[in-house]
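Most newcomers find our protein records easier to grasp once they have seen one. Read left to right, the backbone structure tokens trace the chain's path through space. Nothing more is needed to start thinking about how sequence determines fold. An example says more than a description, so a record of this kind follows:
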Amino acid sequence: MQTIMEILEKFENLIYKFLVWIVLIPKTLLQVVLHPDWAPSYIEQELGEGKSRFDEYFSPVVLLLLVALLPFVFWNFLPVPGIEITSPSTENPTRARNVDFEANITFISTSAKGFVTTFWRVEKQRYDGGNLSYAVLRQDRYTNNPEESNSLDYFTYSPIDTNTIRDTYGYEFSEGGEYWVVVDASKFDSDGYLIETYTDAIQIIVPENLEENVTVYARTKPGETKPLLESVTNQLKSEKTIFLALGLLIPPLLFALAIKLFSKEPLSEDNLKATFYVQCYYFAPIAFIFWATRYAGWFFTPDVFFRYDTDANLIVLLPLVLAVFWFISVQTYAISRERNISAWLALLIVLVCMFILGAGTLIIVFNDDPGVQDVTRKSSIWLYPLLAVGLLTTYHILSIIQKRKEKLAISTGDKVLMGGIVFIIFITMCRVLVVGGREAPLASMDFDVTQRSVAIQSTAELASLESKKFYTEEFNGNFDAWAEPFMTSGDYSQVHLSTENGSLNFQLSQLEDQIPQAYLINYAFLYTDVQVETAVTNNDDSANTISLLCRLGEMGWYEFEVSNSGFYRIYAFDNQVYTELASGESSAIKTGLSENTYTAICKGNELTLIINGTLVAIVQDVTFNFTEGLIGIAVFSPEGLPVSVDFGYVKMSEPSSAPEASGAVTAIVPSAEAPPTDTPSAATPLSEFQQFYIEEFDGNIDDWGPHFMTSGDESQVTLFQENGSLNFQLSQLEDQIPQAYLINYAFLYTDVQVEVVTTNHGNNSNGVTLICQFNENGWYEFEVSNSGLYALYTFDNQVYTELASGESSAIKTGLSENTYTAICKGNELTLIINGTPVDTVQDATFNFTEGLIGIAVSSPQGLPVDVGFEYVKVSAP
């Protein structure tokens, strides 16, 4: 048993050993860099008998491992700059709509000089015309800049340590929907120059039902961290670090083999050892400079060298570049001297070895990519027979050449072996060049996860018995009619299916950054007109998306996609492409841990989506016309994992009548009278029809009546369609100031949202106007000038009355594209510009309640004017 003195003595020796390392490591590195040809003689001397090895300088193998492994291990414990937003509601969900947020902001620079500015904004996620957009509801700016200490924005942040500060924020969500709270944090030096800037966001799902909890999704789950010393010890013991240590010894071994291979000396353990040790010395400075460069790049900020020089960080690469040139020079000299060959041939050997190492490194670095993995797999299988035949052929040819030099007879066995090799090569070439590749059989399933596509069997082969095709799958027995799930994205290991208590549990798990989307198809029957209904229960906090499929065949299918965060979409899949037919937001969708019933009806060319008994969308498809196919379900989650949902049942039945949509829908046609000169009267109502749609100006525009003028001359207005847009041109005529209106006479609206995308094609500023509730008594008008101004008017009794006006930085000036949105809901008028709410007005005087919509163009600041309208979208507010 060891005494205390013996233990203390060993501890003393260990401490002394570490202290000596502090001296020997830089001493050895400097000696190798300044005198590289010293290494071979020193290694030969130290490997001799009767000496205490590597006493004066550090051991080459240990030196390489230390300068490469220790920086790698400590790299994992560097402070990560950026922002992390958290909320108490993540761990403790409540029904309260007033949610608090906290942002921990970590900066690289630790200087107390300078100041920090944070921008908080609340955005609501929307689907506009099938395109995802974000409407900014509120923006707040805070700073601790001493020069702004008297402003409302001035704020004192809570410091956590020298690198990290904490900021807090709160917002009350008054309406249901999907929201994002985004924070931008910037650090400036004392002169006001930007040093660092970071952004982060957190997602909030607010249900329409006030009795349900608000869900806040955290990016990372909170948890305790281990002490640094324990973490470093575990890192050193980990398999990843051990394999890295072995991998670090491969490059010096490769160069040692390149020196000794094909030399006159025999390739043995003792003969290779000295050369391997020398190569470890040569690789040590490269490893040290590599990690020094990585650390310098990690802690780099723009104020280190030269302000405003975006390429200043390239300076930190200079030592690494010089080290590479030093390495090539040293290796060329060493190989040339060892092999007694020319410097050019030695340089070629060095470059070949570096190419092999570079290719291997790239494969390892990018091997997480599924595409790279597949290429590596196929290439490895190809190389296996090629290398085997190549090595055997090369060895046999060299053997025959050697026998000829020694004037020995070539045996029959040599001839037979050579003939066999030639025959194998000939047959292989004929197979590749003449026969070619055989197409995959049609009955196979081939899924391309990169393009969200699937090739399926011929529907004629998939049809089963026609009897009892309408039934309810309750998942309380076997479900052999459902094939194995296929993926259009993600990995198969992320999908877990099980049946329990009469339901199908569908789980998607986390795997790095993979976003799984899994399909389950029922192969029992083919359907023409069909109604597919399912009841789905969400078992997890993450939002999920459920799809119902109908008429799935070899040409494509229809897909009804519903997210329990409140959104839906209807697609047609054809020729490996998804085409969106409809999308939107529905309050009928129950959010959170709720059960939803989704119904998809495919009847003729009409596609209907019903959610919890509420008619949500009806689409007439006149393009794809899929008439027959299978049905199926799908689950995915682009917003968060894990996902766990239960399918209570899937019911296939004959299509039933869809429930009536709430609210009357009225179609109107333009008046047959001559176009008005002032204010046209409202058109006559016709039968009910779908009133919300997008006018993309790529066909006839008969719904838009002849334009009329409130000022100027008719000759100043030119209208024409080109490349899917409507061009509105106003020309110069003496001192006339034209203002031209174009009204859509198709439908009458009560509450309505009108959105346009306009592009200025001229040099002069323009005024674009959106109109709602247009009738014989008057209308509301939203006027926006791309010079930066806006105004809201009512037109009543031939008089314009201004309701609001101002200036907005959200307006893009010059030759830019702007998106303008006007919302008329009750007596509330809202103007949104490029996603930013600009103004809201309550009208208690005029109260126009119903009318047409329209657009107008004017230019009070200069002519000519040329404006392109990309589309006009009419939707429910």
Summary: The two ends are 84 Å apart (CA to CA). The longest strand covers residues 115-128.
